[in-house]
Amino acid sequence: MVEVADQDLLSAPVLARDDVVTLTSCSVVNQSAFANNNGLPIGALVDFKPPASLQLPQISRQPARCRACAAYINPYCKTSNVLGAWQCSLCGQGNVKKDFEGAVLTGFSELCEESVEYVFAAPTQSPPTAAQPHLVLVIDATLDSSMLEGMATGLIEALSSLEASTRISVITFDSVLSLHSLTSDSNFSFTMPGSKPLDLALLAAYLSGEVSGVGGVKAVFTLDIKLALPRILTLLQTIRPMEEDQPMVWRARCLGLAVEAGLRIMSASSPVRQKPATTSRYSQRLPRGSRLVLITCGPCTRGPGTLSQAALESGAAYHERVSGLGHEYKQQATAAQEYIASCVDLAKALAVPVDIILGGGLKVNAPLLSMLSRDTQGSLMLHRGFGPTFGAGLRSCFSRCFGSSAVLDCFVSDGLQLVQWLGPVNVLQSPEPEDVGLSMASDRRLSGSACSVARLQEGHGVALRMEVVRDLKAPAVLLQVVLQFIDPSIGGRLVQRVTTRRISVVSHIKEYLDSVNATATSVLLAKKAVLDAKRLGALWESTKADELRLSLRAQLALIASRCCPEVQLSKGMLGLGARKVRQWPRSLTLVAHTLYQLQRAVMLGPPTHAPSDWARVHADDRLISMNTLLYSSSIDVVRMLLPKLMCWRDGTFKELPPIDILAHHFYNKDIGRFLMLDCGVSVIVLPRISLAVPNSGESLTGMMPLSDEQLSDLKALVMLPEAGAWQAPEVRFVGQSEMREVYARLFPAGKDTISDLEGLHPGIRAVLKDEDIDQFLKVSVGQNGADLTLLQWCSAAGVMLSFQTI
Ligand SMILES: [Zn+2]
């Protein structure tokens, strides 16, 4: 082994990058038995962020990698510029690096910063073609008139943001399929029957112009967006809702055919046709940015891909998991699945993602739609009712993808091992070099932990979980995460983002607990609970969901029993009736809150799904929520687990999605003045006192600054009490360029006694008058007396929460 001397570099501080790879704790307890079994996971979060937002040092030389374990050189390696050598900080292997000889090592950013990006141009790949992307819109024409307007406004807003030369085609569907010609002098449409398989010959005749419109005018189905926008606007305005007397879910909708037709239009108008020498499959990759966007409010109810109403209600969409299902229903479900799989193949051959936007929500046959979006690397988004944020959401959907063919890899020090990846990752299947861009790197080695990410999207992220395999003796262990992807924006360059995080080894529990990142831990616990729920079958079996909820409480009790001191509440008489509880650490309140929220959130909480119970929390709703949580970046996971905001309107409280709060306000000035937070069955009514935003300096950073007027509007809107009078509420704004989201953190109070409330919210008496308290308690009782509040739920697990803000 090459002996490597300490270098002056070691004394220099390393620039830590917690925003690239976030550790659940920057320390770990040296005893493996405790480290692995205290209920707090050891792991990290990796959010997918485009290079521009991270601004990491860019290195164009090939990375130095350990010849034994393949790890990348990092600031924790011992290096010598005399010997031209370095020692791997993960396995201890000595390595030679000629570049170091006689060099000033502080000039190597990979030796000074935890996160760097190695960037290689693509030498062999041709520059991206000048061809313009093709966008196909497939729009459900069965929306309610109230939703149509919001959808049209948002859609036009998003389309206007695209490059003027983007080519666009529009299809609408209800009981029939309509292909729309888009020029101003050919504003007519062709229809095709919705209940039969697609007539390919007829479609080809339409597309080739063999069939023309009135007066022999030729149809133009694909046109530059700039020229097509006026026609699309009129088109959207002329959609007349059908069957409005029918429930939205059962209106006639030939969704499957519309998707197939959209893909075939793309294929027919594709300028690029190539047959790679390596594969026999005919490939027609469309220009980058091409996509099919499906906007719908319900499931496929006509033509191929349909499940009958009875089949859908019996749970046939989940046929692989639901027991006792009729043969006929199973057959229907299999046929629908096969048809959608054939559409997926079409999309894959064109390399276009199918993005699905759901405006309804319930009973959409989510397994089928999820398959269509997931397998084509698209995304599935919920925009119930197409509110004012729909346009912004769609716009970000158009621009979110920043890399393709990514490989995620992980190296750890001796003594640690990777247990699980949680998120939008797939098993790595013997990658073809050109697929993962590895041909551009001289060293193509991957560890056994590597997995692939089909398409990198901003707003998505993964979590990883580790274990300690033996008692740790070293003062620290290391975790190295490598994300490599093709960045198509600059001529298809390969980016290798290497991050090395140091985890100190400590011997005291207190030292460990002080270093736990409660937010990251909560996100990891939430992703794990959701993945466990999917694997267990909690989606469709209420008993499994019950088990999972109990296991969340057991987890709380486990953390308490291992990490928290015992407190005697009462001595009892002669040793009888003595009561002891565990005092939960203040720094981990968010973890308790997350576990509580998880067991009552839509995806796991009551009311559970049972075949007779579809109308309450539908399995589709659960599946979409679960996938969203599993794939989302950490900030979105935190947001999903926060209480909901309710708004007093028309004599009742209505749920207000956090994302819509500001939008609602700035678009609709008539919003009710009462807002309250729903904590399941327990609610907090916010008193009518204007607010000085707590910690405003801190909370408002990282967002577009609000004008004074907007800020005072917001204060009046949210109506939180004066800072200091009530500690719990905290309002934060998230978002890079637009303040689209507000989120609030509050303790559920509900049925807790007034003295508990006063403990949680010191000063509550000062802001609530007696009659307010009456009202507060009245609405707090909720509809389902069986639900527990946070305090009660923790208490049932033998845990006492500290009274403080989270
Ligand atoms: Zn090594």
TrEMBL record:
This is Protein transport protein SEC23. It comes from Chlamydomonas eustigma. Belongs to the SEC23/SEC24 family. SEC23 subfamily. One of its GO terms (biological process) is COPII-coated vesicle cargo loading. GO terms for cellular component: COPII vesicle coat; endoplasmic reticulum exit site; endoplasmic reticulum membrane. Residues 63-95 form the Zinc finger Sec23/Sec24-type domain. It is a peripheral membrane protein. Pfam families: Sec23_trunk, zf-Sec23_Sec24. One of its GO terms (molecular function) is GTPase activator activity. Its main location: membrane. InterPro entries: Sec23, Sec23/24_trunk_dom, vWFA_dom_sf, Znf_Sec23_Sec24, Znf_Sec23_Sec24_sf. PANTHER family: PROTEIN TRANSPORT PROTEIN SEC23, PROTEIN TRANSPORT PROTEIN SEC23 A. Component of the coat protein complex II (COPII) which promotes the formation of transport vesicles from the endoplasmic reticulum (ER). The coat has two main functions, the physical deformation of the endoplasmic reticulum membrane into vesicles and the selection of cargo molecules. Keywords: Cytoplasm, Cytoplasmic vesicle, Endoplasmic reticulum, ER-Golgi transport, Membrane, Metal-binding, Protein transport, Transport, Zinc. It is found in: Cytoplasmic vesicle, COPII-coated vesicle membrane; Endoplasmic reticulum membrane. The lineage of its organism: Eukaryota, Viridiplantae, Chlorophyta, core chlorophytes, Chlorophyceae. Residues 133-387 form the Sec23/Sec24 trunk domain.
